[in-house]
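Reopening this ticket.

The earlier resolution said the output was attached, but the attachment link was broken on my side. Pasting everything inline this time so it's all in one place.
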Amino acid sequence: MAEIVNSIMRVAVIGAGSIAREYSLRFLCGSPYIDVVAIVDLNIEAAEALAEDVGYRKLGAVIMGDKYRETVDRSSVSMKDDQSVPYVLFTTDINEALLTSDAVYIATPPSTHCTVVEIAHAGRKHVLLEKPIAVSLDDCDRICKSADQAYREHQLITSVHIGMRFNAAVHECRARVGRVQSVVLRLQFMQWPRVWQQQPWVARRAEVPTTC
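Inline output:
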């Protein structure tokens, strides 16, 4: 990974749903070290819509909408006559997106994580995987095995994103106690799946284990 640490990392976003939309527009596009170059989704209209928003975001468009409902105000961009919106590839084909990227951010339903991770590793890409890692222990084991092999053979980094990097409390903790080396986090929910996980817009693909 050293070869791209001090340059721009080209990232393909796999998934164009609510979480992918939030993190693409707010955080990936907000980093000077990342260039979102592709959006992949089986829903090509959703992929195209997010790709267009990312293009406008690259020009500095203002983000609108509440959490998980982000879009951009395209009218907030003042464009010169000879200027065009940067093109961002949108496709249903993961392998097409891998051709243009150094890494992938996977924000598809958890039941698909194992397959997508293995495809990304086969394409020799670094992986940032949205939580939870998977919905079964077998899938978790396969992902870990694939990640270990990808690192040993090609020095590819695989990590799971839990979203705390951007949490204000985490930044305050780091400021007070220094860099945290490790954390054990135990969560207990009054209800599982949570209310939002049962809403129609989740498309009945909540983070519910198929096996335990």
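Reporter confirms the inline version is readable. The longest strand covers residues 34-40. The radius of gyration is 18 Å.
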